[in-house]
């Protein structure tokens, strides 16, 4: 399915929010900020939010020039930090970039072009893995989501989708405020990860008649993959946590909406990946069989995580964030209906 916005001119004003929490990512954070500075669009506001790390907050305030640096004043974790960043922003659109990601120069230009269509509530872009070493030969591209990157099987042209990812996302500020932003008690905190971005996308689309999210592969950012995330142990643990997180999401939004994309992924993308790996092995690439095995194992662990979450009776139903009515500076004023 192709996506054809009626008009690609007149980009809205934009604020880029980068949430940071770890001093060991300081160099990555600086490169993320620099990648926003080099965007092809002018007058981009950059806001760095530091998640309860006073030393990193002080360092960022001293060293990051032409950047607004604020502390997370909400709940600890990525969701609270992003909400704090939006509260300090002034753009009609707020975009999110991870602190270990690097935006390509035309990243924002690719995302913002779709906001000319009034039914678009938000847009997400492609994330490519930036491996610290070489890519493990056993690692199937169908599971690149494990390391926070777009995976084989995702659309190759701009397409309406159920959800995008918060590591490369833009949303109308007015819509974000209307739904109260990210759930402060649902998302990534330390080693625990729940799909707060999917939850946000579902609520944002439901908040407007015909509300649509668009995946735009031309809005590219690279996401760093440290060596510790290239092990089989990390791969399987991440798949297990993903399944558990989807169970928690289903408890909030219902199984149908929460797993619709995953069912399609399971029926089409994964079988194709297994077949591809076996064909590669038949043509002399022994690692192809390993990729097929990894797909089967990753799927099994994700199903186990989902089943365990449901069997344990996940009843974590955080209240909806408090919606903030638009008023004054910082509220979106783009085309709405």
Largest sheet report: 9 strands, mixed
CATH architecture of the largest domain: Alpha-Beta Complex
The portion of residues forming beta strands comes to 15-25%
**What letter string, H or E per element, gives the SSE order?**
EHEHEHEEHEEEHHEHHH
- Radius of gyration equals 20 Å
- What structural class is derived from the secondary structure elements? alpha/beta
Distance between the termini: 24 Å
CATH level 3 topology of the largest domain: Spore Coat Polysaccharide Biosynthesis Protein SpsA, Chain A
| CATH C-level of the largest domain | Alpha Beta
Considering DSSP H and I runs of 4 or more, what fraction of the residues is helical?
A: 25-40%
- Please tell me the overall pLDDT: 89
Number of helices: 9
Describe the structure.
By secondary structure, this protein is of the alpha/beta class. It folds into 2 domains: 1-230, Spore Coat Polysaccharide Biosynthesis Protein SpsA, Chain A (Alpha-Beta Complex); 231-311. Helix content is 39%, strand content 18%. It contains 9 helices and 9 strands. Strands 1, 2, 3, 4, 5, 6, 7, 8 and 9 form a 9-stranded mixed β-sheet that branches. Strand 1 (14-20), helix 1 and strand 2 form a beta-alpha-beta unit.
């Amino acid at each position: 399915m192709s996506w054809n916005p009626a008009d690609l001119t007149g980009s809205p004003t934009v604020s880029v929010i980068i949430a940071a929490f770890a001093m060991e990512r300081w160099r990555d954070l600086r490169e993320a900020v620099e990648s926003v500075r080099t965007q092809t669009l002018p007058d981009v506001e950059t806001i760095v939010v530091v998640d309860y790390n006073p030393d990193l907050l002080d360092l960022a305030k001293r060293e990051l020039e032409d950047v607004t640096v604020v502390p997370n004043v909400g709940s600890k974790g990525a969701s609270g930090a992003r909400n704090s960043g939006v509260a300090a922003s002034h753009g009609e659109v707020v975009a999110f970039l991870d602190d270990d990601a690097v935006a390509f120069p035309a990243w924002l230009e690719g995302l913002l072009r779709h906001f000319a269509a009034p039914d678009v509530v938000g847009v997400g872009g492609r994330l490519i893995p930036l491996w610290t070493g070489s890519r493990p030969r056993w690692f199937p591209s169908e599971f690149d989501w494990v390391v926070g990157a777009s995976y084989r099987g995702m659309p190759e042209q701009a397409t309406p989708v159920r959800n995008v990812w918060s590591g490369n996302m833009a949303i109308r500020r007015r819509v974000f405020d209307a739904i109260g932003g990210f759930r402060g008690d649902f998302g990534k905190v330390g080693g625990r990860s729940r799909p707060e971005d999917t939850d946000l996308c579902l609520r944002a689309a439901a908040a407007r008649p015909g509300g649509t999210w668009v995946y735009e592969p031309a809005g590219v950012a690279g996401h760093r993959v440290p060596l510790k995330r290239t092990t089989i142990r990390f791969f399987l643990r991440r798949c297990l946590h993903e399944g558990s997180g989807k169970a928690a999401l289903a408890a909030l939004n219902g199984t149908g909406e929460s797993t619709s994309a995953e069912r399609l992924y399971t029926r089409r993308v994964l079988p194709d990946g297994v077949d591809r790996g076996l064909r590669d092995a038949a043509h002399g690439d022994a690692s192809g069989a390993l990729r097929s095995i990894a797909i089967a194992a990753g799927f099994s662990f994700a199903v186990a995580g989902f089943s365990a979450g449901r069997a344990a009776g996940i009843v974590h139903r955080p209240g909806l964030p408090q919606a903030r009515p638009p008023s004054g500076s910082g509220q979106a004023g783009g085309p709405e209906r």
